[in-house]
Amino acid sequence: PSNAPVITLSNEGESEINEIKLAECEDPKCVGFWACYGIDQSKVGCGSCIGDMACSGYTGDSIGEKSCTVADSCPDATATIGKNSCNAHHACTEATGYIGSKQCNSKYECAVEHFPSE
What we know:
Layout: E1 6-10, E2 17-21, E3 80-81, E4 98-99
Parallel strand pairs: 3-4
Antiparallel strand pairs: 1-2
């Protein structure tokens, strides 16, 4: 987007300046003690991974918007997680495979391979 915040970086002695445009998110992501610890945050949708330890150690392809919004949700998961999913305590812990949208929203649901896959 044209009004995205821009950080300008330059190395001393170099004439070239690099600009990095930050992704805009209306809803914050990766909020909480060790939320998103050790993961590539570009895989996390806006409004996701909210709460202590949420998404820590995640190594899957992507986490949809507004997913994993409770403490201890989605840790060490490798599953691709859809939108509005895994929103409960320990939901999707170590989950693998695929979790669609609006799934696994009860405590411990879809933890360690107990979920439908595609």
